[in-house]
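Bumping with the actual sequence this time:
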Amino acid sequence: MKKIGLTTTVPVEVLIAAGYTPVDLNNVFITSKDYLKYIDIAERDGFPKSLCTWTKGIYGACLENNITEIVGVVEGDCSNTKALIDVLELKGIKVFPFSFPHSHKTEDVKREINEFMSTFNVTIDEVEVVRKRLNEIRCLAKEIDELTYIHNKATGFENHLHQVCTSDFNGDIDVFEADLKKVICDMKNRKQVNKKLRLGYIGVPPMTADIYEFVEKFDANFVYNEVQREFAFPRADSALDIFQQYYDYTYPYDTNFRIKELQKQIHERKLDGIIHYTQAFCYRAVEHIVLKEKLDIPILNIEGDKLNVLDARTKLRLEAFLDMLLDLKEGKKCEC
């Protein structure tokens, strides 16, 4: 199957039905042992230093891994993607634009997906066959999520990793399914991971994946990864069709729609606090103003840039925040 790059999660059901193997360029970039080379490629080609690292990483990963076709999400994701795909087209990359409509109207979402299917010459029946197959695997990712926040048998990093990979199923559906089944079996045989603090992680997946291990030193565990969970479409099994599934996807639409799901998960998972990760030079950092105002829970905003590990300042801020949460939790116990 021919590879096609993705700038973010898109209706992969359409691409797989059309005979493509989707490749999430974000995952290629961040999992590389030499991830900085992708950034260097972009900056040598003229991308400014004051630009989101993810955008530069996607560009470098696309060129370096011989990806000749990509789907670029030009509405509902990164504001830099339109400029990115213009440059990629200059490099000879064939670009297929896709949009998550800001209107968030059912008919607009349906129109975009129908156009996407038409572009790749596939029918709704073909797409629905693939969707049902992928949703079998998404149910496994959902089980890992439940093993994290209900049964306390998975770490925050494992929760992050296995959900974020559902954006492209690691390039092989059957192998990915087998891997998840093995992971679930291993998790079920473990002792519970009992930590005092139950944390939520919201915002784009981090450049600094060591954040998961770092918080564990302070008797804390992430039991909720917002965007990673959305990548895995946890409500897909109740969606009537692909249109409803992608309508119900919170990440690309307005903040208020996203907040409703956040409030639900804060209550259901009994979270003590939230870490809101934003990327340097990203417009989504401004959303923190709204989130902090509307979410009734302690929330800390941290920012990442080029480093793939936490810097000393961020570690200090995290430590102080976690200490505060522990004090608040102990204080509530004393009052009782």
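The tokens above came from a reply further down the thread. The chain has two domains: 2-119, 124-335.
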